Amino acid sequence: MRELIPDLLGYFLNRLDDREDAADAVADTLLVLWRKERAVPAGTEDARRYAFGVARKILLTARRGRRRYTASEVRWRVDALEQTEWKRGGRWGGLS
After folding, report:
1. In three state form, how does the secondary structure of the chain look?
2. Which of 10, 47, 51, 69 has the most crowded CB, counting CB atoms within 10 A?
3. Using an 8 Å Cβ cutoff, are 25 and 19 in contact?
4. In this structure, what DSSP letter does residue 94 have?
5. CA-based angle 20:66:72, to the nearest 5?
């Protein structure tokens, strides 16, 4: 599987915005392949297809997590803004 690392990294770099996220996705993919070593097909091309199937699932999970994180971040910022406005006397800063 070591020879797949550059290809996997390229796959993730093309699909994720952040290099660190791509490197993490490669590590996650390799971890899954290591844990499921017995399920990996014996042939080189079959093993490659299997590895990229795992990579695709890792990518989908990473994207789903990023969307959740972004949505949570927006909610936290809105909540913080609302609390700040409330402390200042409401939406119009006490001018109503």
Report:
1. CHHHHHHHHHHHHHHCCCHHHHHHHHHHHHHHHHHCHHHCCCCHHHHHHHHHHHHHHHHHHHHHHHHHHHHHHHHHHHHHHHHHHHHCCCCCCCCC
2. 51
3. no
4. T
5. 130
